[in-house]
Design goal:
The complex is a heterodimer of chains A (111) and B (108). With 111 residues, chain A is an all-beta fold. Chain A has no helices and 11 strands. In chain A, strands 2, 4, 5, 6, 9, 10 and 11 form a 7-stranded mixed sheet that branches. The relative contact order of chain A is 0.34. In chain B, strands 2, 4, 5, 9, 10 and 11 form a 6-stranded mixed sheet that branches. Chain B has a 5-stranded antiparallel sheet with strand order 1-3-8-7-6, with no helix packed on it. Chain B is built from no helices and 11 strands. Classes of the chains: A mainly beta (111), B mainly beta (108). The interface between A and B is medium-sized, with 27 and 22 residues.
């Protein structure tokens, strides 16, 4: 089934540990995005990529890094997790300038 | 950066009622989308509507880009319409920003 796959579904992580959230799409979309969703704050853009080989900072990029080595994969890395990074993380993709399609999210708890 | 404001923040309806949700944005945009987040947390794209009017069943949306707002209409609401509705705007090299959402509760 075409779509976006995020892994893991949920994770509990000790503060200071490194973590990579995975995102893969099979729709050959040019653009990919990472958002975090916190209660009462909607979705906030962390990083995005318009095409393979390029990435851009969003609204809340600090503490996160991304890479876009190919069209399908867009991993999000927390180099040293902190409790304020506890959130639900959504990956999305779109044909450039087109409708966004979302994965089912990763629930991350940093203790 | 661009500001996206949605109203009302919360809305409670009886089943069968109609409603209008609003999205205002502070700058020119190159696209606008509406989403529904269901109680299980899934985000579903309802409309891709940078301008004009579209309809899909009981839902319709209108974007007036020159006046920097969009409206989502829900007619004959059903309990399955409950959830959070988000608008998102695209600007500045494909950056997509979301509003804080409208939480809709439809009572039977």
């Amino acid at each position: 089934i075409a779509g976006i796959t995020q892994a893991p579904t949920s994770q509990i992580l000790a503060a200071g540990r490194r973590m990579t959230l995975r995102c893969t799409q099979d729709m050959r979309h040019n653009a990919m995005y990472w958002y975090r969703q916190d209660l009462g704050l909607g979705l906030r853009l962390i990083h995005y990529s318009n095409t393979a080989g390029t990435t851009s900072k969003g609204e809340v990029p600090d503490g996160y890094s991304v890479s876009r080595a190919n069209t399908d994969d867009f991993p999000l890395t927390l180099a040293s997790a902190v409790p304020s990074q506890t959130s639900v993380y959504f990956c999305a993709s779109s044909p450039r300038g087109g409708p966004l399609h979302f994965g089912n999210g990763t629930r991350l708890t940093v203790t | 950066g661009i500001q996206v404001e949605q109203s009302p923040p919360d809305l409670i309806l009886q089943e069968g009622a109609n409603s209008t949700l609003r999205c205002n944005f502070s700058d020119s945009v190159n696209n606008l989308q509406w989403f529904h987040q269901n109680p299980w947390g899934q985000l579903i794209n309802l409309f891709y509507i940078p301008s004009g009017t579209k309809q899909n069943g009981r839902l319709s949306a209108t974007t007036v880009a020159t006046e920097r707002y969009s409206l989502l209409y829900i007619s004959s609401s059903q309990t399955t319409d409950s959830g959070v509705y988000f608008c998102a705007v695209g600007y500045n090299n494909n950056d997509m920003r979301f509003g804080a959402g409208t939480r809709l509760t439809v009572k039977p």
